[in-house]
Amino acid sequence: MANVVGEGAAGRSTRTLRAEGALSAIAADPQAPDRLRRVLEQALVFAGAAFAGFYTLGEDGELLCLAEAAGLPRTLCGVRDCYSAAGHTPVAEAHRGRAVWLGPRDLAAQSQSRRTPRREFHLAALPVRHDGGGCLLAVSERPGGFDDGDRACLGLVADAVAFPAPPVTAEGADLPPGGFSLAMDTGRVRVHDDVLELFGLDPDDFDGRVETLLGLTVPEDLPSLMSVVEADHMTIGDRELEFRVLQPDGPPRWLRLRGRLEHGGEGRPARLVGTVTDASKLRADVTDVARVQRLAAALSTAVTVRDVGKAVVAALRRPLRADRIALAELESDRLVVTVLDPPEPEAWPEVWRSEWRTEWPDAPVRTMPTLAAALREGRPTIWPAGSPLEPALAEVGPGGLAVLPLPAGNRMAGACLVGWDAPHDIGADERTLLTAAANLAGQALMRARAFDAEHELVGMLQRQLLPRRLPRLPGAVAVARYLPSTAGLELGGDWYDVIPLPDNHVALVIGDVQGHSAGAATLMGQMRTALRAYAVEGHPPDVVVSHANRLLVDLETDLFATCCYVDVDMEAGSAWCVRAGHLPPVLRHPDGRTEIAEAEGGPPLGVVRQCDFPMSPLRLQPGTLVALTTDGLVESPDSDIDAGMERFARQVGASDPADLGPVADALLGKALRSDDVALLLMRYDGMDTRPLRESWTVWRVPQAVGHARRFTRRTLRSWGVTEEIDAPLLAVSELVTNALVHTDGKVRLDLTLIGDRLRIAVADSSPRSPVKPTSIGWEATGGRGILLVEAVSAAWGTLPVSGGKQVWAEFTVRH
């Protein structure tokens, strides 16, 4: 390659010549274990790529698998581990010999995957000429993509990839010195004896579990190490990091891990293979590679803006021996501070405390011209001790101040301030660490900002779909809690409701729609509304749930729902429970005894159109606590749902139901949840005054109205009401007459006395409510009944009941 450089130097750019020289130096050592990765790194240096990877055919000859990579983790660029060699992806096209150059619009048009990144990328796929074929894939996040010089350098890199990565030691073969082989599906690991010596383990005592080795690492290094050995966080090619292991005596020992992920092919698990060596003698006080890798691992799992800030503080403060670090988002012309470390107000300048009064202070950038200039330039700026700065910045770092603009593509995401109290000389390693941290934090901050915005939108929509407040109940107190999932942004499908019903009945409802998506949340809102509507119509519990089931089937959705519906009679202290694939209620009795209700269940809603939902009786004594929850509170990867219900019942039994708010908070606080959770608690106290009730079935005979009046008179006399009964008797006559004349079917008269309040209700089988006439002429023969009822009663109205309606009127009586 050196001859090529000499002969064509006149026709090449300086950058191309430098790239050829760098690649020639790498080619001089063909047996270097990291040769391929070093070649790919030249695409980052000379072509401005954010990611570069080499794909080669797998053992089955059907898949092109990522053998080595450099730069950003592939997941941030929407790049997969494997592509079909027979497909039409850029990787497959390049493997067949055609170079592919795609811009953001081309990628958006081709993408049919949820892996598509939200940032705009340019992609290049170039064929690699060797016996096995292959492809060089490069991704750029610069607005202009790859220019002519970049493309020339990428061509040189593709030519330099002369052969695939060295073959990995096969399973069952002897491991090289310092080698290991980890099965990703089982966590079983084979290691060379000298690796066990580095960990301080005797080969005869090692059990072959990777957890044994991880348990010997320093806890703060464990997250970055887990990002390599856990399958959920794998990114091929990014397999070098340093970590510490605990020693029986003395400080921890630094080790360096190098490895690669190997796809096992059909029916075989993926394996992580590589070497572990002693890095104690190679490390300086600040090692940019190891610390940047740990920061990248932490930022890859950082979800919120606060998470990003905490990861940056953890990565910078100790190695830089800084006294304070502030991370701020840039919104328009204002800086919104998200993390202050240390958090105490007295650790920060007086102007910050006096002018920034919000919980996380914000201020216009123009109030700090020095900071504004640094943001315009877009590169880290360092001021030594004694630099003439405005007070708002000088007091942050009297011994030295570093301002790190946080770039994200073609915009500025925010700024990070690092300050020292004593004079501090920032060395070359520290400058490298600051620059790398700024680039990583900027990208992570933009992702986290989008997450926070979507999370707030999700929370607002979720709150709108759930009850804003619970109603006051006669003879009971209810509280409810909802917590969204701790993982991801998607909406949950859990819901709860408390529905007041006539005759001092209350319906407690809790349910869960399958999945976590906007569709699940929308369906949850529909099911909650449907159940409330069917309940208010007066249907019995099994009919309410059956109607909701048929509605969900008719919606023709792919989702199903579970539900537990409990109809409580507050007067009698009894309840009927209906379960549709949901968890049963937990009852805590007044003596502290707790039981999981034996309530027979039906299938989930939306599965079978015609099915039975049996009703199971519950008996409630005053002081009984009824607890309803969803599976997110009781189910975990470590235990099945039955064990979770037993644990939940024990926690309910150990609680003090005198104040339900702390009880609900305590139950939720003990949950290790990855799903959203709904919790509904009701303490049944019993009603202070139980109503007096009597009913009469009105037969369709000529003397029906007279029978109804005599029944009413006898009942009121037995209750001690003997005065001012003419108005109630007139209302009975009119309501019963209307029901007999204008409807068919059964008619029922109900009388209820609560204190001095008498309620007369007539139910019939017609759903049509009576209409009060606006005017009545002298010649009219009807229409005066409702006007008479309105005139003699304190209030009147109608209610839907199962299959019909109920017309009622209330009176104040003395007894």
From TrEMBL:
Gene3D superfamilies from the UniProt entry: 2.10.70.100, 3.30.450.40, Histidine kinase-like ATPase, C-terminal domain (3.30.565.10), PAS domain (3.30.450.20), PPM-type phosphatase domain (3.60.40.10)
Pfam families found in the cross-reference section: GAF_2, HATPase_c_2, PAS_3, SpoIIE
InterPro entries, A to Z: Bact_Sigma-Reg, GAF, GAF-like_dom_sf, HATPase_C_sf, HATPase_dom, PAC, PAS, PAS-assoc_C
Keywords annotated in UniProt: Hydrolase
Domain (PAC) ranges: 239-291
Protein name: SpoIIE family protein phosphatase
